[in-house]
Amino acid sequence: MAVYTDISEEEVAAFLRHYAVGELFSYKGIAEGTENSNYLLHTSSGAFILTLYERRVDRADLPFFLGLMEHLAQKGVSCPLPVKRIDRGLIGELAGRPAALITFLEGMWMRRPTAQHCRAVGKALASLHQAAADFPLQRANALNPAGWRRLWDVTGGRADEVEPGLAREVEADFAELDRGWPRDLPAGVIHADLFPDNVFFLGGELSGLIDLYFACNDLLAYDIAVCLNAWCFEKDISFNVTKGAALLAGYQSVRPLTREEIDALPLLARGAALRFMLTRLHDWLTIPDGALVKKRDPMEYVRRLRFHRQVMAPTEYGIALA
Asked: Looking at the structure, do residues 174 and 296 belong to the same domain, yes or no?
């Protein structure tokens, strides 16, 4: 569930008086997502998403996130657009939290993505990378390898509660990632969380990318590695090389990868799997049962990690070498 803060009709109506969007007709909470409180609003001028930014989102990062949406939209990337207030600002306050009104993007996310969907995602990701190349703001990736280690310092001592021997496994991952993590690959603004529920399709075509609240500056190929983990594994955690090939081909149809980026894919994919395992492990061990934050099973990403450890060459992800 992604409605952590309840708001009344009177509060919403008062908030909307700062926007030229007409009269409030209806509003309802949206159960998708995990970080913020989201509501679908209908007004006399159309549909909008109202987002209340919860504790995990630093208010100081909002100009980066909202400015990036504006920048990408201006460059032709289909994504939600923040609505300007009457005073021309983008950020208001509602129920004691920073809040913004965002345009509504038509479409739905794919519960069972096909290779065709993966190709479209790869192409869209490369387009985002290119469009954001001249975005003037910067935001460091708080969930970079140093951030992973901070999470592990909090939860590693209890990892064996999830599965005996897990702590030893993960320490070995950290040792290899510390030795080999690339530092000099092409970098720029990345989405960093482009999971299927953050990509909308309409009539079989990709209609837009949403949820840019993990966007940051980092290695572009790392963003591809996140997508390989998110889009190309089946329910039994087997890697679908056809989907991997489609995603990588779609990306390279817009932005060809360097040979150094291709060679780094196995380690980057392993790191991306570790990153999502660690955030899940943290929530699994530290959030009480029954809390509003939805806890996700870290073992799904432990199993992805085990796959990536066995990968000997980038071609195992389906990439075609010249």
From this structure: yes
Other CB atoms within a 10 A radius of the CB of residue 290 amount to 5
pLDDT in the model for residue 34:
61
Spatial separation of the C-alpha atoms in residues 283 and 45, rounded to whole Å: 39
Query: Per the structure block, which two tokens stand in for 54?
Result: 């919860």
Q: Report the C-alpha gap between 252 and 126 in whole angstroms.
A: 8
**How far is 16 from 86, CA to CA, in rounded Å?**
10
The 3-state DSSP class for residue 193 equals coil
What is the rounded CA–CA span in Å between residue 70 and residue 280?
31
List, for the chain, all residue ranges whose pLDDT scores fall below the cut of 70.
1-3, 32-34, 289-293
Greatest distance between any 2 Cα atoms in the chain:
61
Amino acid 36: pLDDT: 84
| 95 and 149 part of one domain | no
Q: Looking at the domain assignment, is residue 2 inside a domain?
A: no
Asked if residue 322 belongs to a domain, the reply is no
Q: Which residue has the tokens 């032709």?
A: 76
CB–CB of 314/237 below 8 Å? no
Structure tokens at 34: 């995990």
